[in-house]
What we know:
By secondary structure, this protein is mostly helical. The chain has a domain at 20-56. The chain is 27% helix and 0% strand. The chain is built from 2 helices and no strands. The chain has helices at 6-9, 39-49. The mean pLDDT is 85.
Amino acid sequence: MAQGMTSFNSPCPRATWDSDDYKGRVAYIRTLDDAAIPLQVQQMMIDELGKHFEAI
């Protein structure tokens, strides 16, 4: 198997950011001039998480 395909075929562990240990300590940084992911798409990804993030 090609090295680049390993990430698609390897088991994915549970995300740690959604554990109780990280409650209130997780941030999502949006960038205004991201050349790859427009701001609206970044917001869509945040919304899909189903978590509340306080804007500062």
